[in-house]
Amino acid sequence: MIKLSKEQVNSIGQDLEMGMKCYVHKTTGVATSVPNDISEHDDNFEVWEEELKEVKQNPGQYILIDQMQSSDSFRIMRRFLGKVSNSKIREKLMIAISQNKPFRKFRDILDYNGDVLQDWYDFKQEQIERYVNSCLDGNSEEEE
Fold first, then answer.
1. Of the residues 30, 48, 67, which one is the last residue of a structural domain?
2. Cα–Cα distances in Å, from 33 out to 25, 49, 69, 95?
3. 56 & 76 share domain
């Protein structure tokens, strides 16, 4: 089982949030992040070519960590509602996630309620780190 530092897990989480996917070397723990939808036909492919070449040549040596599914992100928003102590803001957030474009509306409400915004960032980062660790732990179970 590979064990990464909190800083490494945090960094992977931030990369995932920026639209990247991450390959973690099973032995060294070195993480390589590349754009989620990069292809050989992209203008900036050469920037990522070396990293992708190594992963393609040795796929069994890497754990792929993809971005969360939108359903997972939605569950994180729902879990956050239980952490919001201000009942008016919590009610607005509940309404936001029950409407069309829930991610956008949820974020709009947070943007206008700065006192809750940092709590959201902290909570979301914690949840993303848990996701990264579960991907790493899930992969180690497959190998045993």
1. 67
2. 11, 12, 18, 35
3. no
